[in-house]
Amino acid sequence: MLLRTEELEDRPAISKLVARAFADQAKGGEPGEVALLEQLYACDEYIQQFSVVALVEDQIVGHVIATRGWLDGDVPLLGLGPIAVDPEFQGKGIGGALLNEIRDRAIAAGERGIILLGHTTYYPRFGYVPAIPAGIIPSDVSWGDHFMALQLGDKELPQGKFIYAAPFGV
Ligand SMILES: CC(C)(COP(=O)(O)OP(=O)(O)OC[C@H]1O[C@@H](n2cnc3c(N)ncnc32)[C@H](O)[C@@H]1OP(=O)(O)O)[C@@H](O)C(=O)NCCC(=O)NCCS
């Protein structure tokens, strides 16, 4: 498996993969994550090096994106998502490899932390902890422990109200 930064010509394949990965969570039609991704590519908070694809035999089988988010409007953090692995390739460690790659890239870039909303049984194995008890407050507190944070390097996580990139609307 190869991990590399997403390029413009990858986007149709990424859309197909995301549609497949989220299909069973969508109530028919195209999963909302496909349109969300298009908006993320186009927004000011898009950062190309934090959009990463996983390839097996030249086929895109996984993708993760993290975009700029803000604490209290002025402290930058990364907001991760969506992440998707082709259903035929799930359970082989590709999701984990994508998460580790984003973490390593974020540390190298001097980022302080990564925020995500996700499954409480999956992300803790990659070091994510509930964000609200750590003092990072989402716009919807009902997210509870699904709202998670990863501290990067030796920098303490700052506290405050977190707002995702504009296309998320939260
Ligand atoms: C979540 C996802 C990215 C994980 O990718 P992956 O390559 O299958 O993950 P890995 O191989 O690194 O890890 C597999 C482990 O994740 C667990 N896992 C996968 N999806 C999970 C979920 N929805 N909730 C909890 N655990 C999950 C598997 O049970 C497996 O656990 P095990 O190692 O104890 O057997 C992938 O399943 C996916 O694309 N799902 C559909 C889209 C989605 O839900 N994205 C995340 C939105 S928060």
Describe this structure in words.
The chain has a single domain, classed as Gcn5-related N-acetyltransferase (GNAT) (Aminopeptidase, 3-Layer(aba) Sandwich). Strands 1, 2, 3, 4, 5, 6, 7, 8 and 9 form a nine-stranded mixed sheet that branches. The model has no long low-confidence stretch (mean pLDDT 96). It is globular, with a radius of gyration of 15 Å. 22% of the residues lie in helices and 31% in strands. It has 170 residues and is of the alpha+beta class. The longest helix is centred in the middle third of the chain and has 15 residues, at 94-108. Residues 21-22, 82-85, 90-96, 118-119, 121-122 line the site of coenzyme A.
**Which homologous superfamily in CATH is the superfamily?**
Gcn5-related N-acetyltransferase (GNAT)
Oligomerization state of this entry?
A: single chain
- The tally of beta strands, per DSSP, is 9
Q: Over all CA atoms, what is the radius of gyration?
A: 15 Å
- What is the CATH architecture descriptor? 3-Layer(aba) Sandwich
Helix content: 10-25%
Distance between the termini: 34 Å
Find the CATH topology: Aminopeptidase
Q: What is the top-level CATH class?
A: Alpha Beta
* Unique ligands: coenzyme A
Q: Overall mean pLDDT score?
A: 96
Biggest sheet character: 9 strands, mixed
